[in-house]
Amino acid sequence: MKKPVSNLQHYLISKISERVYTFTSSIGCVYHCYFFDFSAAFSDYPALAANVFGFNLELKEKPEGVQKIPPDKKIAVTVVDIVKAFLNEKENTVIYICDTIDNRHKARFHKFNHWFEIFNDGNYLQLKGSIRAGGIDILNALLMHRENPLANDFIEAYHILTGVYIKPDDDELQNMLNDDGW
């Protein structure tokens, strides 16, 4: 099992509603982290659909005069702690999709995956994917607790939905998207 890489403490987290959390950084930026129903994407898998959630991190406000937000490792720790707490309800699975609207989706995807890899204590699985739609690569990741009772079913469904399905009669499952070089 992987050991935590950092002893950093997260920011104070407040729960706004059932699946919405907020925190404020040391420079006064207010963030919302929220989980939303993502069952429609798994509609062909009714046994899984009720436990699939999308995830988003949103900067709600930043202090006047702050043009560029400096790097802050405590933001990473806070976001990952929120996701891990959600996944500790071992049946939940989270799909993270990077918005392409500002063309910074690759940087966001890399940053989020890096955060999750650094602060993962080995109890969580992460599968990375890309779906091509309308000439755009939509980067995404599936996150779940290792002890999720439906882990194999989620992995298989995710592979099928993202087009990375490998026939069951193959001797070896090779997931190119989990390759460190991807």
Task: Characterize this entry briefly.
The protein has 182 residues and is of the alpha+beta class. The protein is built from 4 helices and 7 strands, in the order βββαβαβαββα. Mean pLDDT is 81; it is low at 1-5 and 165-182.
List keywords for this structure.
182 residues; seven-stranded mixed sheet
Helix-residue proportion? 10-25%
pLDDT averaged over residues: 81
Gap between N and C termini: 23 Å
Strand order in space, largest sheet: 1-2-3-4-5-7-6
| Count of extended strands | 7
Q: Helix tally?
A: 4
Q: What pattern of helices and strands is seen along the backbone?
A: EEEHEHEHEEH
Task: Describe the fold and architecture.
By secondary structure, the protein is α+β, with helices and mostly antiparallel strands. It has one domain. It contains four helices and seven strands. Strands 1-2-3-4-5-7-6 form a seven-stranded mixed beta sheet, with helices on both faces. The radius of gyration is 17 Å and the shape is globular.
